[in-house]
Amino acid sequence: MFSVGYNSLMMKKYLSQFGTVVGIITVLIFLIGCAQTIALNKLERLVLDDDEYHSHPKPNAISCIESIDYERHHEEIVNIIFESGNLDLIDQFVEYFPDDFRNYIVRGDRYVKNAMMQQMIGILMKSSVTSSFNTAKESYMKALELNNRDIYALGVLSFLYGEEKEYDKAEELLKRGLGFAPNNPLLYMALGQMYDRKKEYNIAIDYYEKVLGFTEEEVEKEFEHMKQYYHKLMDSYPDSLAKAKEEARKNLKKNYRKIGRETT
């Protein structure tokens, strides 16, 4: 009887102590979470302050990022930086966090977006647009040095080469991607579009028809990879097999007409 009673008392004591520890841990986790949220809110405010990027060797926004759990909050960090459109901050970001391939992709995407906006507005010098595209290319190439299997970076870089009619470089990148992602329909789509530009319509047709042959099961993982949060321009590309096939059919119809072939 005594032994059972003693054990019961000891158990209550241990449970009480355990409950206290759990409570303390819960409070600490809550406080850490609050601190991270405060830091992210501070980062949002800091990115709006253009002057501070030129007045300090290390911008306050960068110091703020260093105080945050970088990996856990990386998506939120890059979203804030990308949406700010502040190229100075984006340049600083890759300078202080140079070993993360994702940051170079985000930088490339921001420079591409800025260049396209400049083209649409049409009031800035052509050299400014060219400079933005060149910086974007450098960023994607650096990302591929750190991770040579990122299909998205390969695809966007090949697009930029294609825009400059450097078709050999564009094709080399796309075919490199097919070497480790043979079921990615967007690579075949891009190759078809490249041959369209070269007016080699029969070759383009072969690539478009390849897109139509894929099944959902074959391409599921490919689209999962493409839809990463740090692929900021993904909304410019088909994000499903159904959309890729729809675009391929439109291109096929145009090409069939150009070569005098009946549609199937």
From TrEMBL:
PROSITE patterns xrefs: TPR
Record keywords: Membrane, TPR repeat, Transmembrane, Transmembrane helix
Transmembrane segments: 20-40
InterPro entries named in the record: TPR-like_helical_dom_sf, TPR_rpt
UniProt-listed SMART domains: TPR (SM00028)
Any Pfam family hit: TPR_8
Residue stretches of each TPR repeat: 151-184, 185-218
Protein name from the UniProt record: Tetratricopeptide repeat protein
Species in which this protein is naturally found: Candidatus Scalindua arabica
